[in-house]
Amino acid sequence: MFSCDRTTVSRSLDSLLKIRPKGDRFPIVVSQDCGHKPTSDVIQTYVKKEKGLVTHIKQPDLSDLKLAWPQKKFKGYFKIARHYKWALDQIFFTFNYTAVIIVEDDLEYSPDFFDYFSATYPILKADPSLWCVSAWNDNGKIGMVSDDPELLYRSDFFPGLGWMLEKHVWLELSPKWPDSFWDDWMRHPDQRKNRVCIRPEICRTSTFGKKGVSKGLFFDKHLKFIKLNEKPIDFTKKDLTYLIQENYDPTFHKTVYGTPLASVTDVVALRKKALPALRVQYSTKEEFKSAAKTLKIMEDFKAGVPRVAYHGVVSFMRSGQRIYLAPPEGWKGYDTSWT
């Protein structure tokens, strides 16, 4: 758990400890930056109370960053990247763990958070086309997700906000870790290398963190509307091998491109409401952004990839109907000029 100067880290720790399975699995390491004593004192109460379960480590380099304009206004993001590099080096090289679930101090967790990661870990290990498992759906707002908490997907978009990483991937990333905006850097083709993440239909984390480097703008517009799963699923008793690429892709393409075409106007006007699913086609960046805006899903791209997309397809619910915003069949890959 990454922490800085929010004493409300207690809220996140309470949420995590409430659902943590008994036993030695899932030790909690809180890595703190910023040198903020009131926050440190709060974390220490958990170290003492949860003997041997919670470890508190402190990022030692609190030096100010000498940045020129315009980087200066993004100083917070530079400090976050510095902290991530140090902390993940500690986890993999000092503690010598083989995998880690990364969370931040402003998250709360679904009751099946640990079951979700326990069950997807063998899939992550088995499929070299996967490089992360995330608890997050960027389009996971209330009314935009199915009521089925079992639904899981592959996604080309790296989501973050509660995610699992293996040591072998960190060995690759650590030597070239960026000075700032680490999450967008991970989304670049040089790092992603066409690897994908598993993500849920309904989020297994939600954020209460209005205070932070993004100044709360994104929180008020979007994050506070995200639905957190409340129906626990024991994923460890489910067969998740359908998420392995060779099993997933043929079914995915057959489902998406076997779905009837409709216009954005058809969807908004509920003209084909009797159908369980509809496909809206886009061929250009402008068509995607226009459709996304009208349908009220995330419009932005990172390295050409729309949020939650898999093979260019963004899947979401609208008025109880599954919608696939999709490129034409025979998709050839992302265009990194789409920003």
TrEMBL record:
The cofactor is mostly bound to the substrate. Its main location: cytoplasm. It is a single-pass type II membrane protein. SUPFAM superfamilies: Nucleotide-diphospho-sugar transferases. Keywords: Cytoplasm, Disulfide bond, Glycosyltransferase, Golgi apparatus, Manganese, Membrane, Metal-binding, Signal-anchor, Transferase, Transmembrane, Transmembrane helix. It is found in: Cytoplasm, Perinuclear region; Golgi apparatus membrane. GO terms for cellular component: Golgi membrane; perinuclear region of cytoplasm. Its cofactor is Mn(2+). GO terms for biological process: protein N-linked glycosylation. InterPro entries: Glyco_trans_13, Glycosyltransferase_13, Nucleotide-diphossugar_trans. Pfam families: GNT-I (PF03071). GO terms for molecular function: alpha-1,3-mannosylglycoprotein 2-beta-N-acetylglucosaminyltransferase activity; manganese ion binding. Its EC number is 2.4.1.101. Pathway: Protein modification; protein glycosylation. It catalyses: N(4)-(alpha-D-Man-(1->3)-[alpha-D-Man-(1->3)-[alpha-D-Man-(1->6)]-alpha-D-Man-(1->6)]-beta-D-Man-(1->4)-beta-D-GlcNAc-(1->4)-beta-D-GlcNAc)-L-asparaginyl-[protein] (N-glucan mannose isomer 5A1,2) + UDP-N-acetyl-alpha-D-glucosamine = N(4)-{beta-D-GlcNAc-(1->2)-alpha-D-Man-(1->3)-[alpha-D-Man-(1->3)-[alpha-D-Man-(1->6)]-alpha-D-Man-(1->6)]-beta-D-Man-(1->4)-beta-D-GlcNAc-(1->4)-beta-D-GlcNAc}-L-asparaginyl-[protein] + UDP + H(+). Belongs to the glycosyltransferase 13 family. PANTHER family: ALPHA-1,3-MANNOSYL-GLYCOPROTEIN 2-BETA-N-ACETYLGLUCOSAMINYLTRANSFERASE, PROTEIN O-LINKED-MANNOSE BETA-1,2-N-ACETYLGLUCOSAMINYLTRANSFERASE 1/ALPHA-1,3-MANNOSYL-GLYCOPROTEIN 2-BETA-N-ACETYLGLUCOSAMINYLTRANSFERASE. Initiates complex N-linked carbohydrate formation. Essential for the conversion of high-mannose to hybrid and complex N-glycans. This is Alpha-1,3-mannosyl-glycoprotein 2-beta-N-acetylglucosaminyltransferase. It comes from Mytilus galloprovincialis (Mediterranean mussel).
